[in-house]
Amino acid sequence: ASSNENLLKQLVELTNSKKSEATETFPDNCFSFQQMERVPGCIATVHVKTTLIPTSDNPNEYRVLVQGSSDALLSGGLVELLSKVLAGSDTENCVTASDVLKLQPEALTTALGLQNVLTRGRNDGMASMMRVIQRQIQSLLDVKSDEGEQQFGEKNTEASIETSNVNGSERKPTVAMLLSGGVDSSVAMHLLLRQNYNVTAFYLRIWLEDELAHLGECPWEDDLQV
Questions:
Q1: What is the percent of the chain with per-residue pLDDT over 70, rounded to a whole number?
Q2: DSSP category for residue 147
Q3: What is the pLDDT of residue 164?
Q4: Residues 25, 107: contact at Cβ < 8 Å?
Q5: What pTM was estimated for this model as a whole?
Q6: The Cα angle at residue 102 between residues 130 and 85, in degrees rounded to 5
Q7: pLDDT classification of 65: cutoffs 50, 70, 90
Q8: 46-54 and 31-32 as β-strands: parallel, antiparallel, unpaired?
């Protein structure tokens, strides 16, 4: 337990050290996703953005640099850890875009030795981060192939629940829906979706105001799963 707590504290320190670093700069021949993209399925609010830089020995292969942000200390540390792992220790032995695309997102925390340290929600969140990064890499490579070095970005993925245009009916306004985890709010959201409303769901996290005092504990996470 003490070993796990030390690992979690080190992740938090990664977040704090990142805040003190200078703004990152990239070479002119890099190409990036134009904006931060929100990662779905994370406990915290996490955004990531991928930049590809041609390697020195092969212009058709790329180093992967990931920038990210989070509203939680531990999740921020996980973003920074993932960024450091993908960037590699030096340019000669870096992880390439091709390598990243071959990774299995679900096996990421196991490979990093964190599966038993993190809660299930944060394990799932790390896998979701990797999927978003892989999607961004593939999008950048596709555009690089088709349109040269044009900078590319997708519309930021919002935490909204969307349905297709049913039977050609007109899309109704966006509705904010507060979910409690119970039956009533779940049924209400289902009915709104059936009526073709665009529903943005919210859930209040009202525990663990002091994240450092409760490292590795997420009692609201269990409630959300119910």
A1: 71
A2: H
A3: 39
A4: no
A5: 0.65
A6: 50
A7: very high
A8: antiparallel
